[in-house]
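Technical annex, item 7. During the second reporting period the consortium partners agreed on a shared format for inverse folding records so that results from different sites could be compared directly. Each record opens with the tokenized structure and is followed by the designed sequence. A conforming record, contributed by the partner at site C, is shown below for reference.
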């Protein structure tokens, strides 16, 4: 029979305060394994795994809200994955701290000469946001991978979005290509063309994402940290530009499209993907039925720039605009990948779901059982534009 510990015993074994354990219990971050009839709370050895994850991730800079979805499982496999994650994040932190230390030493040498190098001050400020940068990169990369995985796993169209998108690009006209918002670089895993005599620039607003892409793809590409509302290239530089699910994130799409057409050559091609208002609509309905307060996105991205209004917007900048639709749908028969997807969204869902993930999983499991899988509409496409 597994040994159970009182709250006090558990806190003492773990080397944390009783107040900490009680607080984590109160907010639902670490609930006891058993609550006896008399109200006494009992913890088991597996709860130590959850506590280790909480304390380590908190030390690395994660907020308690960000920790919730990372600690739902405490079996051996999930613990092993968590240890690998923690190790990778610590290695990144060491690299950043080493760079900060070297910059501090260089700045100290300059100061001994009674000079102030403002470029060094700026460098120190940037390097000092170590925790925030590492955590933001990890969360952004994980959320992106979670969303891609759901589509890869449960899509009816087995070709897959990225191979299909790659197939639409006319590489016979490509000599200088820029991808805006390359994300994890998955589009380029499917390259089947000769890079010789071609310049391919992969850009993203996240330096951390670019570092990961460079590790995956190597030195055949150029990597740039770019905001596509301010592209640092001269006029008429590229013959091809790609923006895969990017334009609807821009605060000012017109500013972004003006920059894109500025750096695109005459007769150059702009490949621009988006989706409609119906895309993945069932997922929003599912969470609304569970808790009507939940909004998975603070704004409707498709209303900002979608299949319904995209051609009209793009026609202000391009002489020719065509659209190709990607035919697909999802049949989801596992609850956890769908829950992970929902938690990765940009809305307020974590505020209402993190304290009741077990109830939410039970709800999703029942929906899958009732319908023999949850059918999700996919309505995405690609605008092909000629300047």
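Designed sequence (site C submission):
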């Amino acid at each position: 029979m597994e040994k159970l510990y009182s709250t006090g015993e558990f806190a003492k074994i773990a080397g944390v305060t009783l107040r900490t354990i009680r607080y984590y219990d109160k907010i639902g971050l670490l609930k006891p394994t058993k609550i006896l009839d008399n109200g006494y709370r009992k913890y088991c050895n597996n709860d130590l795994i959850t506590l280790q994850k909480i304390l380590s991730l908190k030390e690395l800079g994660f907020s308690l809200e960000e920790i919730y979805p990372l600690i739902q499982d405490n079996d051996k496999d999930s613990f092993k994955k968590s240890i690998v994650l923690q190790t990778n994040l610590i290695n990144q932190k060491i690299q950043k701290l080493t760079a900060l230390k070297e910059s501090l030493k260089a700045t100290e040498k300059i100061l001994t000469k009674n000079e102030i190098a403002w470029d060094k001050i700026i460098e120190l400020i940037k390097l000092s946001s170590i925790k925030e940068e590492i955590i933001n990169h990890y969360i952004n990369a994980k959320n992106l991978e979670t969303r891609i995985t759901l589509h890869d796993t449960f899509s009816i169209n087995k070709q897959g979005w990225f191979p299909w998108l790659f197939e639409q690009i006319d590489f016979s006209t490509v000599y200088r290509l820029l991808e805006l918002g390359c994300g994890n670089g998955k589009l380029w895993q499917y390259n089947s063309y000769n890079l010789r005599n071609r310049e391919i620039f992969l850009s993203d607003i996240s330096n951390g994402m670019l570092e990961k892409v460079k590790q995956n793809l190597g030195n055949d590409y150029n990597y740039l940290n770019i905001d596509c509302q301010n592209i640092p290239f001269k006029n008429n530089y590229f013959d091809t530009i790609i923006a895969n699910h990017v334009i609807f994130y821009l605060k000012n799409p017109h500013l972004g499209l003006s920059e894109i057409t500025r750096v695109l050559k005459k007769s150059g091609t702009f490949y621009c993907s988006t989706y409609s208002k119906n895309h993945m609509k069932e997922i929003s309905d599912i969470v609304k039925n569970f808790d009507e307060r939940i909004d998975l996105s603070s704004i409707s991205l498709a209303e900002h720039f979608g299949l319904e209004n995209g051609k009209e917007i793009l026609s202000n900048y391009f002489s020719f605009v065509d659209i190709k639709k990607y035919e697909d749908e999802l049949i989801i028969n596992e609850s956890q990948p769908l829950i992970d997807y929902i938690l990765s969204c940009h809305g307020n869902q974590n505020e209402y779901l993190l304290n009741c993930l077990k109830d939410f999983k039970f709800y999703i499991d029942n929906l899958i059982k009732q319908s023999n899988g949850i059918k999700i509409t996919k309505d995405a496409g690609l605008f092909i534009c000629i300047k």
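Strands lie at 5-6, 34-35, 41-43, 176-180, 199-204, 222-225, 238-244, 264-275, 320-332, 374-386. The CA atoms of residues 176 and 199 lie 5 Å apart. All partners now use this format for quarterly exchanges.
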